[in-house]
Amino acid sequence: MSLFRFADGWDALRGRGPALSSHLWPRELRAAFPGPRRRVEAWVGEGAAFARYATPHGPLFLKYLPAGWRDERAFRRLAREAAYLRDLAPLSPVPHAPLLHAALDPGPPDRRHFRAHLVTRDLTDETTGWGAFGADAEREAALLEVARLLARHHAFWHGRPELVGEWGWDAAQAVRRAHRTAAAPGWTSDDGQAVREAAHALPALLEETRGVTLAHGDIHAGQVLWPVGGGPPILIDYGQAHAAPLGEDLAHLLSVRLDAPDRARLGPGLREAYRAELAAHGHPLTPAQLAAEERAGLALNLLTTARQARREAGSAVRAALQRVAGAWKEGVRD
User: Fold this and answer.
1) pTM
2) Which of 27, 148, 300, 329 has its CA 20 to 30 A from that of 233?
């Protein structure tokens, strides 16, 4: 890592892009946003590093892969987000942070370095996040707004002609991946049983779904910003966006992000808010049809979380796997 960091640092000092540091901008970024800039704050998060700036061009938000990372998965996610913001987000009525600049450089085939950045308008001062809701009632109302926002996103992208090629859905590939996941060794008895059941059930569950939309892929309350002056919430962080059945995001919100008591208490209201908003935008579903969508989405989430748990040994992903496996055992009620 230190050798990689030295090589990347040398390129950063020479002005080669993409950005590798919040302190040193590459030539192309300085050319795109000339003039003085003040770094307001900077931090390293999971999957990327971030920085906010005050500039003559307005507030800017930089997301980049720091020097020395060499992280192919993080590179693919940042490239995915840039592609969505550039090609698809301008078509959608769902508010987003506008893309202002992006650069991707995987490096030559024999010497990959996976460098990338994107710049959007910084919305920090004009929005609030999940942490602004202090009371349980406020947080529950905000979660209902998240469900409605998700429904508007899904309603717009449902069956759209743009969902082809890199944005297309391949059910056969999803089934093949499911069988490979189920066959992997080392699962605990409970988790392994749930994973095997989901993989076995997936083909039939997918046959019960009603078309394809664009899933956000990592939906939770932290992916939504609320404008200070009111107005529709803003959906952010599209690094895992992909085509999928309608229920995948809903199942993620309910079963990956909520524990069993919260899911039992909040789930019915969130489902109904999602279903009503979907119907209001031209895609009515009966409760039974929504339950079928969610069950297929739950299987997909269980299998995805299982693959992540195989790659990562952290307690957070293990806890997520336990939540979604528990939800699978509970079943989905219409």
Assistant:
1) 0.93
2) 300
Given this model, what pLDDT does residue 113 score?
A: 93
Q: How far apart are CA 118 and CA 163, in angstroms?
A: 23
Q: Rounded to 5, what percent of the chain is helix, strand, coil?
A: 55, 15, 35
Q: Which two tokens stand for residue 138?
A: 């406020």
Kind plus residue range of the DSSP H or E element containing 270: helix 260-280
CA 165, 167, 169, 170 torsion-angle sign: positive
Q: Is residue 153 a contact partner of residue 206, using CB atoms and an 8 Å limit?
A: no
**Region for residue 215 given its phi and psi (left: phi exceeds 0; alpha: psi -120 to 50; beta: otherwise):** beta
Q: At what angle do helices 189-207 and 171-183 cross, to 10 degrees?
A: 160
The one-character DSSP state at 313 is -
Domains along the sequence of the chain with CATH: 2-122 (3.30.200.20), 127-330 (3.90.1200.10)
DSSP 36-76: --EEEEEEE-SSSEEEEEE-TT--EEEEE--TT---HHHHH
Do 221 and 146 meet the contact criterion of CB atoms below 8 Å apart? Answer: yes
pLDDT digits (tens, 9 = 90+) for 18-66: 999 999 999 999 999 999 999 999 999 989 999 999 999 999 999 999 9
Is 204's pLDDT higher than 80?
yes
Question: CA 216 to CA 35: how far, in whole Å?
Answer: 35
List phi, psi (to 5°) of 77: -70, -40
